[in-house]
Specification:
The structure is a homodimer. Chain A is an alpha/beta fold. Chain A has four domains: about 160 residues, MoaB/Mog-like domain (Molybdenum Cofactor Biosythetic Enzyme, Chain A, 3-Layer(aba) Sandwich); about 55 residues, Molybdopterin biosynthesis moea protein, domain 2; about 70 residues, Molybdopterin biosynthesis moea protein, domain 3 (Molybdopterin biosynthesis moeA protein, domain 3, Beta Complex), CATH 2.170.190; about 70 residues, Beta-clip. In chain A, the strands form six sheets. A six-stranded mixed beta sheet of chain A has the order 6-3-5-4-8-7, with no helix packed on it. Chains A and B meet through helix 2, strand 12, strand 13 and helix 3 of A and helix 2, strand 13, strand 14 and helix 3 of B.
Amino acid sequence: MEQISLECALETLLEKIQPLKNVEEKYILDSLGFVLAEDILSPLNNPPFNRSPLDGFTFNNTDTIGATKDNPIAFNVISEILAGDFCDKKNLSKEAFRIMTGAPIPDGCNCVIKQEDVIFNEETKTLYVDRELKPFENFCFLGEDLKIDDLVIKQGEIITYNHIGVLASLGINTIKVFKKPKVGVLSLGSELTMPGKDLEKGKIYNSNLFTIVSKLKYLGVDGIIFPPMCDDSVSVSNFISEELKNIDFLITTGGVSVGKKDIMHDVIKKLGANRLFWKINIQPGTPVLASEKDGKLILSLSGNPFASLVNFELLGRPVLSKLSSNAIKNTTLIEGVVRGGFNKKSSKRRFIRGYFRDGYIYLNDKKHSSGTISSLIGKNAIVEVLPGTPYLSEGDKVSVILID
Amino acid sequence: MEQISLECALETLLEKIQPLKNVEEKYILDSLGFVLAEDILSPLNNPPFNRSPLDGFTFNNTDTIGATKDNPIAFNVISEILAGDFCDKKNLSKEAFRIMTGAPIPDGCNCVIKQEDVIFNEETKTLYVDRELKPFENFCFLGEDLKIDDLVIKQGEIITYNHIGVLASLGINTIKVFKKPKVGVLSLGSELTMPGKDLEKGKIYNSNLFTIVSKLKYLGVDGIIFPPMCDDSVSVSNFISEELKNIDFLITTGGVSVGKKDIMHDVIKKLGANRLFWKINIQPGTPVLASEKDGKLILSLSGNPFASLVNFELLGRPVLSKLSSNAIKNTTLIEGVVRGGFNKKSSKRRFIRGYFRDGYIYLNDKKHSSGTISSLIGKNAIVEVLPGTPYLSEGDKVSVILID
């Protein structure tokens, strides 16, 4: 089977899927990072009343006409309004209210003066104002933040911490969001041992499962960890056939090359899945296999640690991003200037690991072998090396895929 | 009391605290974002054996000396080694093993040839090799990724998805991390109504609690939500006195100004807490109050929505960052070039909201009032406006504090 391009492989995957539209209701504090499934209109005017922005006195400004330092105007302070109070007395001429920050301004009052700027006689409840106030001076209007039915957040937006405060301020404590995709992760290989167990001769520890699941977690999805399976196509296909019903997307690792234990080819036949492609024209991660069953994608990554990460970032993440209406952040393609270098010529389009910061992509690492995993630490990018490129040198401009 | 500078306030807070050093053991998949409390040394050589990077045949390269297309050298293939197998047969002259990707290379073999590059007679188990191989061609060395006792991750590093894959590859399934700070959030004010409940006249919905707690969640901390309390200093101080024992840091909102309901001054007296400062020379958020009791900080934010956010970002986050050994990301100070503008002159150092991207800080918003909350949506930065600055114009360079 011919190797297809990365772009063609990605297109093939993306045209098979649509954003998932299952809706769930969430408490606002649990909705961070979810995609809003409804338009949020303001259910109220906010603030819900005219209110004072400071601690002072409120009255009608026309009563201050002519007030000067030498000729202060006296008001009779008839009551005190605290935040949370409600006063239904109507203001009369030369009457004032003592008012605290956030308290509702009574009808008839249209300005507030700071308590530091007046003389107030507590005994006689007499207030002296020695300057003219403008209408609506220090006056917060009902609905000045939002009016009833204003569009507050549009369907499709990803809920951030900013949204949550605003929703709370409107009294909204639950919202409708799209469910995140249920992603299963299955690793294949009789050589794989789960960390924490003793390692027998010839076996290695299972790292791919943990790399992928921790990456999913970082991206805001609790991946479903399936028990790793050995290289038996019957039991693997039976297992997938059963579990695929409960998930939206299956990622497998291993078993996709041409060796005796590369059972995924047989598994997808037994499953009756539709093979979309096998092998793409990149290195590492060439033998990635994609198939579809009942409208659900199965993406079978190379078993090599770095190769599986490359497959996941270049193909799996865009799928997750589309399924989740972008709740799962896609990778970002940018340009970077090389620091350090890379000197392995390849006839294929190659992807290597690097660390991107402030426009530079650092390629200091010697350990580029796709089986080498420790050199992933500290990397946040994969870098494209075009086919036939003899080497990358300091200062070269390259395409960088940010995987953070 | 004199207003102190932001810098002085921050220094005062930070010198009162030390990074928390309580250690807990975590399953690696639950350790994302925690700070490692131990050095991780490799417990094994990884890979744990010499292994084949591909599907092919392995033998000793000296047996291929003189091999050419016209004069291929024949090997007797004595056995097959799959990934996960272990073969303790020693290689003899002109003997080869069929070997699959990831399988251990037997003693005496020192190279691997791809199965596509040879002729193999399945019947007679005869392999024909028509070129000379170099020693260690296609050969992955035991320990080439990591050797026993290599330092893999240093104490103090924040665990990322990359670390988790590497830890798994070494068989490590639990690690020691520092516990994250326990942060309590208490909002004060009899005007506050929890979202989801009906709003009585004169009341408003409690947004600060949700803004702060969702921000904490975004930063990786499950804040402890205390039930909002009314303006009664006795019950508030009793409550704090009890709950402070169980947390590392208390954030309160409201009750810090000079009004009748600004009970926090009284609360800290009743608590016997040590007041560190009250009022800083910025706007909004001037009346922030900080106190300390039994080595724990109480940071009492302004009750105004934007003011409380400014207080939290400028003072609360650095405290959290230090307490958590940087597991909680601090704000970042950078320079930005203004797009749009801001035209409110202030005698004080002022902070306004903005959106930062690619070096530019967008100040398009009209709604800068500190009581306005909806305009927080889409903002990721707060911008410093120096005292006396008449206005900020397109192209001005400003200090930007990234709050994402």
